[in-house]
Design a protein that fits this description.
Its EC number is 2.1.1.-. It contains 13 helices and 7 strands. The chain has about 270 residues and is α/β, with parallel strands linked by helices. It binds S-adenosylmethionine. The site of S-adenosylmethionine (SAM) has 15 residues, from β2.
């Protein structure tokens, strides 16, 4: 946990968002350097115990920089953040592993103040989140994270450093927010194309995109309009190519002739990112 805190490189100008502080081992470290820590805990007894733990171990000045929020990180939005505290610019967290991907993508979507972060997740999830196109583990989480941020693996965390020892390995993911590769209003359509492409990842785009495009012909036409080989698989496409696919579909739906071809294709509804 000390390594995570050190690698997060937080300073007195940073407000750190920690999701799932649990017993507070990481919170204590973060309070050593951060200007403020907003710790979001869903479990009421743990949320109540955290300020007590911190007050018992740190000087009052440091304890005063902790702001505990009793909330579900999966629904966390700006309205849940403490008043009078600068909005968090850094996410530093040992995320609950079973919901790490939707937690990460969700806070990047709903909290635009987050500029960078370092999270600990299950090792396989770290590999998937940071995988480049063409990699065996590249998938929907990789593309969706690439919409929001540049990411990189920041090292593995072997089981024996934990007590009790978990039955999975852990990995760190560092990220820095980027300007999204397409306008925000296209995000749901891009993610719908991504979900379709990876729902059948061994299939070519002309087949895998049928549920999204409406038909095989429409999927082929959209891929060609986007400058993408319809015979390629989704795992070869970067986020920019998925943006071109989504833009092609938007354009086709807006055009009556193409809309006829695309009849029956479900429109992407704005929704949660994962
Ligand atoms: C330190 S994290 C995860 C630890 C470890 N990586 C794992 O997955 O087992 C565990 C903490 O996250 C909290 N937690 C779980 N789900 C949460 C959620 N949706 N929002 C905020 N906190 C959550 C739990 O109550 C617990 O205190």
């Amino acid at each position: 946990m000390r390594r995570l805190v050190r690698l997060a490189e937080v300073g007195p100008d940073d407000t750190v968002l920690e999701i799932g502080p649990g017993l507070g081992s990481m919170t204590l470290g973060l309070l050593g350097t951060a200007g403020a820590v907003v710790a979001v805990e869903v479990d009421p007894p743990l949320a109540a115990a955290l300020p007590v733990t911190v007050a018992a171990r740190l000087p009052a000045e440091a304890a005063a920089r902790l702001h505990v929020v009793l909330a579900d990180g999966l629904r966390l939005g700006p309205a849940d953040l403490p008043a009078g505290v600068p909005a968090p610019d850094v996410l530093a967290a040992n995320l609950p592993y079973n919901i790490a991907v939707p937690l990460l993508l969700g806070v990047l979507e709903r909290l635009p103040s987050l500029r960078r972060g370092l999270v600990m997740v299950q090792a396989e999830v770290a590999d998937r989140l940071t995988a480049p196109p063409g990699s065996r583990v590249y998938g929907a989480p990789s593309v969706k994270l690439a919409w929001y941020a540049r990411s990189r693996p920041a090292g593995g965390v072997p089981r024996p450093v934990f007590w009790p020892q978990p039955n999975v390995d852990s990995g760190l993911v560092a990220f820095t927010r980027r300007t999204p590769p397409a306008p925000a209003e296209l995000r749901a359509e891009v993610f719908a194309a991504v979900d379709a492409a990876f729902a059948q990842r061994r299939k070519t785009l002309r087949t895998a995109l049928v549920p999204w495009a409406g038909s095989r012909d429409a999927a082929t036409a959209l891929a060609e309009a986007a400058g993408v080989d319809p015979g390629a698989r989704g795992e070869t496409l970067d986020v920019e190519a998925f943006c071109r696919l989504a833009a092609a579909r938007r354009a086709a739906v807006a055009e009556p002739a193409a809309a006829t071809q695309l009849a029956g294709a479900p429109a992407a509804e704005p929704g949660p990112p994962d």
